[in-house]
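Q: Joint fold for the lines below.
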Amino acid sequence: MTAWGLAWRTIARSPARSVLAVAGVTVIGALLFDMLLLSRGLLVSFRELLDAAGFDIRVVAAEGSMVHRPPMADAASLAEAIARLPDVRRITLVRSDTAIAITAARSGGGTRVSLLGTSDLTSGSVWTLVSGSLLPSATAPGEVPVLVSLRLAAALQLQPGSSLPLRLFLPGSASALPLVSAHVAGIAQFSFEAADEYTVATTMEGFAAAHGKPADGVAEMVLVSTDSTQPGSEASAAAAIARLRPDLRVLSNDQVMEQFNQNAFSYFRQISTVLSSMTLAFAFLLIATLLTMSVNQRLGEVAALRALGFPRRRIAANLLWESVLLVGVGGLAALPVGALLAVILDRILREMPGVPGRLHFFVFEPRAILLHVALLSVTGVLASLYPIWLATRLPIAATLRREILS
Amino acid sequence: MTRSDTPIIEGIDLTRSFAMPAGAVVALGDVSIRVDPMDYVAITGPSGCGKSTLLHILGCVDQPTTGSLVFEGRDVRTLNESERSRIRLTRIGFVFQRFFLLPMLTAWENIELPQAEAGVTKADRRGRTRELLEYVGLAARSDHRPSQLSGGEMQRVAIARALANRPALLLADEPTGELDEDTGTQIAALFDRVHADGTAIVVVTHNPAVAARAGRHLTMKSGRVVTA
Amino acid sequence: MSGLNRGRACAFAVAFLIAAALPVATPASTGLPPILISRQLAEREHLNAGDIVTLALDAEGTGSRRFRVDGTYEPTPDPLRFTAKRLEVRVHLPELVTMTEVRDDPASADALTAINVKLKNPQTADAFSAAVASRAPGTFVRPTARARDGSDPFAVLERFHVAVAAVTVLGSTAFLLALMVMRAEERRETIGIIRLIGISERSILLEVLAEGLLIATAGAVFGIVLAVATQGTVNQFFQWRYDTALVFVRVTRSIALQSIAVSVPLGILAGLVGSWTLLRRDVLALLGR
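A: Joint structure:
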């Protein structure tokens, strides 16, 4: 009988105990798997969001960042200059502010919304049109056509053609801006809308009109899309923009990722590292305890096998296989359980304010499975070391004597 | 009977002492023993006289504190644990008082196990196991686990297991200690057959029926051989 | 904070860094206004008390003024900004106003970013906020007490950690049951003998209960002691990683009691389940007959 065959028989000998041990490994393994998914989940998900938006470069003021974006007074002329660069395919200007939407559907002080002004009128990048029509390329002075998010439309019972009174909200300063009557051109799904916010998008002219002034060419961010068919176009475009305007910050998607990674995402990476380590330590302790108790219960058998001529390595191999089987079966079962748990945990974390609705904390990557298998395997092997030592070093004669007397 | 020139095992001036908090305990003191092929040796004596200790040393399960032990011409003290394991697997068969069968294996599998470890081919294992089960009269119980066998049946399976790799020497430590008188007699008869078929036997026993069948008797007291 | 003020604040901080890159290593001048700098800034720019620094609003040196570093302070840890590098300066308000005022805008001398209010009766915070908001439209007034609703990121994190803890308890319960079943099996013969000589199942269960209570309580207490010992390591790691004095893990009395409330009954239950696996068998089966 092979070592793994004997190990299997040993495990099957106590089905209740083995099932419980495997269940324990499954649950702990599921947690480990989820922590591995969490370690890079935000990075992967955010990268997908960035790439889906279709822009490769973001330009902001030098003293700003992706989160805090001071206005750039000459953004319009900047965009024209960037558009003339060889690798650049598309430019979009963006600015944002906070407004209060006042409707009869909601009582109280109104609904706080994020007002987004943009020069990009097409669907498929920052938003996807669901119903109605896109923002018009030309608007009459003072007109504020808007696209509202699905969530806002549902909350305020809006549809294409509805009127949406907006008041600009400027915290920290007294604001006497008049109410602006925006009209809903369409309803869209916004990639970066958080679960706790409502987004309203309008044209740059509409944005200025909402502030009671004419279009002024100001923007917070210039989004640049390069020719993706040309390798290296992103890097060369970024370098060209930086040379053009060394007073601004030019961020590629990689650099945006790095910024968010260092500031916002690193906490979850650290948490996942700490929890993964604790999970592995926990699994190690429990498997080692289980195997040690199992060996202690079978000392007589082990001594008899040694007396019959079974070498130490064979005893060690049996025990190692026992550990491999327990951890292996449990570890494999942990994958679907972990996937289900990840959905639940992801749902919890996505309730965090400010998190884009399409961002996920737990994202599946094949490397997570490999790491999961590797870590559990190492843990299983390490956990079996002490019981193996116990079994292979026991004094045969003394053990036989003790077993007989007991 | 003339003694063979080459004993299977020979121990000279064997002593075994155990360090205890209250001082060293000498379990075996200057015991010399020689077992030739076709010997049937019974070792008797009161409890704690060192019978099992001597058996464990002869079976290469334990090491003497002093003295020499030569197994089939090889000095056991110079062998490493792996080599001693090999001797126990292929040249010595062990039968225990408490049987020590693996409870999760059937009778067949318990007997087959040492053969597999010794590298015997599957076909040969099958033949040998079937032969041994018939030898001990348990061919019909080959699929039964130890929990489904009586004490006497378990001991017969244990004897079959001990004979699996055709050892030169069978060592039995109180083989009838857990059995009733009639069953003990059956086991004793089985030992007779084993001996008659060419295997040397050394048995430690309190059972007069078993001891009576041996060709040689060693009586021990306080770690020493008093009559041989 | 409006975008403009945010921008100015960022510019201010950045400009300080640029200006402070060349500290004037001259003896402290009592005529210069004093400032306090954050520990992180002091370490990064190698500044000490007594150093003279120049603060400006931008890289061009707009509004620059010289100050004397009077000391360093540890910024109050902000859980919402713990990843931010706390490169900060504390300046007397009149000095800051003098630096930032716009000559053409008299109101700029009177502009503030925020006002912190300590109430005589903190319970009236909500009512006070509403009253101020109604009297000063356009201001953003809110109590500093943690809003325990879905909008609170810490409530979300708390739910996350509770979920992880629940999964851990589930896994450890499975292992605990396995160990208790093994332990019960070890004592199979003993239990059989006890039953054989007439000891009732009830007595055995009571003994198991007492034993389980003792072991579970000891285990729970040990677990809490281990958690308290470990929290220091976790805090040290995160405090080092983010250069902050924020406490990330704290085993409070409430948490300790909750842990005991969960683990002790689980431990007892596991022991009872293990014993049940034996007591449901008849005596002879226990003795292997």
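Q: Anything notable?
A: Chain A has two domains: 3-50+259-405, 63-246. Chain A touches chain C through 57 residues (CB under 8 Å).
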